[in-house]
């Protein structure tokens, strides 16, 4: 059975329920009680299953990446550190522009082909762009969950095995 070699996640509305460049205000920090907060002390939360999804995939040996088009590059990286997710991501492409550029750079750095990648994002345009390039791209509707990831890995395997 074919297995994905690189699993890539969008950030906004995929791993966390907001746009980092408009809905929250950097800089971010941990409060005394351990909550992640923005400059106005508004609590910043990720989707409930995101930490477990990332930890599980990492423990299973998958290579993970991030592809985000946000203009709030520093804030996005700061949140990845504060959520303690930096350790999971081998590749991070966080800057404005087309997701194809993000994936082309990941392909160049990793040597992993588009057909060996799976991508999770909440925007149809990104899904369409990357499906066209051969990346198995999954539309995430209400944040990443174990079920979405598990079903998608099965779909990837079946799709690639039948090619």
UniProtKB/TrEMBL annotation:
<keyword id="KW-0904">Protein phosphatase</keyword>
<comment type="function">
    <text>Magnesium-dependent phosphatase which may act as a tyrosine phosphatase.</text>
</comment>
<dbReference type="InterPro" id="IPR036412">
    <property type="entry name" value="HAD-like_sf"/>
</dbReference>
<dbReference type="InterPro" id="IPR010036">
    <property type="entry name" value="MDP_1_eu_arc"/>
</dbReference>
<keyword id="KW-0479">Metal-binding</keyword>
<dbReference type="GO" id="GO:0004725">
    <property type="term" value="F:protein tyrosine phosphatase activity"/>
</dbReference>
<dbReference type="InterPro" id="IPR035679">
    <property type="entry name" value="MDP-1_euk"/>
</dbReference>
<dbReference type="GO" id="GO:0046872">
    <property type="term" value="F:metal ion binding"/>
</dbReference>
<keyword id="KW-0378">Hydrolase</keyword>
<dbReference type="InterPro" id="IPR023214">
    <property type="entry name" value="HAD_sf"/>
</dbReference>
<dbReference type="GO" id="GO:0003993">
    <property type="term" value="F:acid phosphatase activity"/>
</dbReference>
<dbReference type="InterPro" id="IPR010033">
    <property type="entry name" value="HAD_SF_ppase_IIIC"/>
</dbReference>
<keyword id="KW-0460">Magnesium</keyword>
<dbReference type="Pfam" id="PF12689">
    <property type="entry name" value="Acid_PPase"/>
</dbReference>
<protein>
    <recommendedName>
        <fullName>Magnesium-dependent phosphatase 1</fullName>
        <ecNumber>3.1.3.48</ecNumber>
    </recommendedName>
</protein>
């Amino acid at each position: 059975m074919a297995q994905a070699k690189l699993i890539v996640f969008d950030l906004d509305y995929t791993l966390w329920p907001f746009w980092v460049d408009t809905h929250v205000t950097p800089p971010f920090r941990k409060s005394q009680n351990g909550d992640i907060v923005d400059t106005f002390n508004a609590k910043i939360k990720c989707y409930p299953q995101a930490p477990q999804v990332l930890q599980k995939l990492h423990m299973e040996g998958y290579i993970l990446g991030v592809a985000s088009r946000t203009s709030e590059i520093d804030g996005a990286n700061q949140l990845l550190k504060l959520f303690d997710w930096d350790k999971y991501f081998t590749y991070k492409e966080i800057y404005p522009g087309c997701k194809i550029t993000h994936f082309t750079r990941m392909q160049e750095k990793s040597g992993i082909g588009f057909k060996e990648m799976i991508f999770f994002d909440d925007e149809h345009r990104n899904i369409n762009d990357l499906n066209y390039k051969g990346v198995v791209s999954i539309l995430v509707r209400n944040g990443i969950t174990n079920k979405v990831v598990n079903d998608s890995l099965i779909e990837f395997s079946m799709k690639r095995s039948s090619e």
